[in-house]
Structure formats: C-alpha cells, structure tokens
Design a protein that fits this description.
The structure holds two protein chains of two kinds. Chain A is built from eight helices and no strands. Chain A is mainly α. Chain A has two domains: about 80 residues, Orthogonal Bundle (Rna Polymerase Sigma Factor, Chain: A), CATH 1.10.1740; about 70 residues, Winged helix-like DNA-binding domain superfamily/Winged helix DNA-binding domain (Arc Repressor Mutant, subunit A), CATH 1.10.10.10. In chain A, helix 2 runs antiparallel to helix 3 and helix 7 crosses helix 8. The longest helix of chain A is centred in the last third of the chain and has 24 residues. Chain A is elongated. Among the domains of chain B are: about 50 residues, no CATH class; about 40 residues. The chains are: A mainly alpha, B mainly alpha. Chains A and B meet through helix 2, helix 3, helix 5, helix 6 and helix 8 of A and helix 3, helix 4 and helix 7 of B. The complex binds zinc ion (ZN). The site of zinc ion (ZN) has 6 residues of chain B, from helix 1 and helix 3.
Chain lengths: ~190, ~180
C-alpha cells in the first residue's frame, strides 16, 4: 500500500488484483449490468490511482476505494435516469431476460438456486434495481458484499443509525415485492 | 409482544432463527400472520443472494487498468518515471491478448456459422468451451450476444492498436475474451 502511494505502479497493480473482484461485484450489483460495471470499475481504480498521493490512510484503502466506486456508480445511475449516455456502452442495459441473465450461465448459480425459478430471480433483480439508490447501496454492501455497519457508514459517510435504518427499509421493500409475487401466484413460498 | 414489535425484530435479522428472542419465537408459535411474515423474510434473503451471485472480474482487469494508467500518463504529457522505460514488461501484453482473442473469437464464430449452414457435416475440432457454446446453442439471443461481444472485441482491439503496438511476447491467455 505504501509503495503504491509513493507511485510504484506495480504495487498498485497488486492492489487492483486484490480488490478487483470485490469492487467489480459491488458495481455490477449496483448497476445491474456486468458490462457497464467493467468500465466503472476500471474508472474507480484509475481515480484511486490519481488520488493515491492524497490518500492519508485515515480510512482503510478498501473503504476509500468503495467510496470512489459508490460515487461513480451513483453518478451513472443518475445519468441513466436523465437519459444521458453513461460511460461507453451502447448496449441495451436491460434485456427481456433481465440484466444479469445474459452474463451468467445457469451453472453459476449455487445450490439455493434450485428452489428459485428464473422468473423469480428476474423479478427479485428488478425489485433490487427499483430500490432507491441509497437503500440499494446499503443492501448491496451489507447483504451481498458482506461489509460491516461501521465500514458502510464510512463508505457512505453517514451515521451508523442511518445505515441500519436504510437496511431495515430495504429489506422491508424487498419483502413486499416478494409478497406481491406470492399473492399474484407467480411464486410459491413454503412454510 | 405486539405483532408490530415482532415484525420489527423479524426484519432486523431477516427472521434468522438463531437470532430471534424467546418472546418473538413464542409469539410466532401462536400467530399465523407473523409466522408467514417470517417465512417471507427468510425467502427474500435467499432470493436476494441467488439473484445476484458473485461474479469474477474480467481476467485482464488489472492489466487494462494499468494500461489505461500508462495511456493517461502519456496523453497528459507528464513523463512517467524514468525507470519504467528500462523495466521489461513481464506481463503478456494485453494488446497481443486482444489481437489473439479477437482472431480466436472471429474464427470460432465463423466455425459456428459454417456449422449452422451445414448441419449434416460432422463437427469441426472443438473450440474453447464457452465460445463454442455460444455458437452451438443456436438460440437467437445467444447469437445476438455473441455478435455484440465480437463488436466490442473489435472496438477494444482497434482502440488498442491505435495506442499500443503489438508486443512479441508469448504466454497469452486465450480465455481472456471467451470467459464472459
Ligand atoms: Zn403476530
């Protein structure tokens, strides 16, 4: 880390290698688009590299990197909402199959997948994408990325209580969506 | 304990069985509505995880980042540290990987097209699994994805060629562009 901070590019390359999966997953889950996530992840590392000399180590490198990625992802989502072009991709962001579907072969899914139909997965992904970005951010960071409340508070620069209440709201919203699907007879939930 | 209080506790831990207090468990035994809520919450969590499984970053992510750093260093006009000029590149050039990857993908796509036009012929030697799959599958969606991937490959390749001459070093990983 220190060598990277002093401008050692190979040391920075090692940091990229160490964190690329984490950041890529985070961005892909935020954006719902693995292709676009690739660009955004690269950009996050580039920005990290450029501002490395200013990095003081007060926060850990990993929360700082997350913070950069989070800002970029939210920026992309806002531009999407305004209909502005985002990074470089001209591919449709959402196909009939849902955003992740075209990227992930079925065998990628874990054993839990067996009990979940494809339609359900797509519906749940849509529900996640429909969450307000602040709720989605916390949900992705805590539930899927496995970050702690403290780190998330650092990454998003909000009080701990805010992290917890956003997580609470996000869970509730997702549950409501699932409930609607159950009531519509689209999925079944055993006791 | 009221239903409302119980539900708050359920949401707070996704209704995790081992984290529920005795009072909540007791309530759940008697209250059908809250029990249903608990089941729903547990399913929500399972579905969240199975809907967004972990992905691996593209294999050449670090190389791409580093080559973009180099590009920007040059275009920004500030001299990269002098010693970098003397350090031989040990990594296989990803420019070369792009070239080989593109050629491979095009060849495989060509093979798939050839196969689809001549269904009676025996299959040609098997190309790498992932891309081969895309071709053999034959569904319109997969073909479109493959086309999109090829277009993107071409673009990436051209972009690189403009900025970086192809290196001669060997050891290129062919899975670079076929793995996603
Ligand atoms: Zn109750």
């Amino acid at each position: 880390m220190e060598r990277a901070r002093q401008g050692d590019k190979r040391a920075f390359g090692q940091l990229v290698d160490e964190y690329k999966d984490k950041i890529y997953n985070y961005v892909a889950r935020m954006l719902g688009d693995p292709y676009e996530a690739e660009d955004v992840t690269q950009e996050a590392f580039l920005r990290a590299y450029r501002s490395l000399p200013r990095f003081r180590g007060a926060s850990s490198f990993h929360t700082w990197l997350y913070r950069i990625a989070s800002n970029l992802a939210i920026d992309v989502m806002r531009r999407r909402k305004r209909g502005e072009p985002t990074f470089s991709l001209d591919e449709p962001l959402e196909g009939e199959d849902g955003e992740f579907e075209r990227e992930i072969p079925d065998e990628t899914f874990g054993p839990e997948e067996a009990s979940t139909t494809r339609e359900t997965r797509i519906a749940v992904r849509r529900a996640i994408m429909d969450l307000p970005e602040k709720l989605r951010d916390v949900m992705v960071l805590y539930e899927l990325q496995g970050e702690t409340y403290e780190d998330i508070a650092n990454i998003l620069d909000v009080p701990l209580g805010t992290v917890k209440s956003r997580l609470f709201n996000a869970r509730n919203r997702l549950k409501e969506v699932l409930e609607e699907l159950v009531e519509a007879g689209e999925i079944e939930v055993g006791q | 304990m009221t239903c409302e209080q119980v539900r708050e506790e359920l949401v707070a831990c996704w209704a995790c069985v081992d984290e529920l207090t005795f009072e909540v468990v007791e309530h759940l035994e008697q209250c059908d509505a809250c029990r249903r809520e608990a089941v729903l919450l547990r399913h929500t969590r399972v579905m969240l995880h199975s809907s967004m499984p972990p992905l691996s970053a593209p294999v050449n992510m670090a190389e791409r980042v580093m080559s973009r750093i180099d590009e920007q260093a040059h275009s920004a006009g500030w001299l990269p540290r002098a010693r970098e000029w003397f350090v031989p590149r040990r990594q296989p050039s990803w420019a070369r990987a792009a070239a080989v990857g593109t050629a491979l993908a095009l060849a495989v796509a060509g093979g798939a097209l050839w196969r689809s036009q001549r269904p009676d012929q025996s299959a040609p030697p098997s190309p790498p699994a992932v891309v081969a799959d895309a071709g053999i599958d034959g569904s319109a969606a997969r073909t479109a994805t493959l086309d999109g991937e090829l277009d993107e490959l071409m673009l990436q390749h051209q972009r690189l060629e403009m900025t970086q001459p192809l290196a001669d070093d060997a050891g290129v990983s062919l899975v670079v562009y076929t793995s996603r």
